[in-house]
Amino acid sequence: MAIAPITGKLRKRFWLDLSCALGLGIGAGYAYWYGSHLRDLERQESYYVKLERERAKAAQ
Q: The whole model's pTM is what?
């Protein structure tokens, strides 16, 4: 009893797999960028502005 080879599986689902992978990847990238990275960057920038103001105040 021979088992029939599985043929055409990759070709049939290629576009679905590719579009899901790209969609999920881009979605995760946007979620990280706008949900975490920009918030951390804003917190860092405000800390440096505070340091610069304290340094300028101490220099006077």
A: 0.62
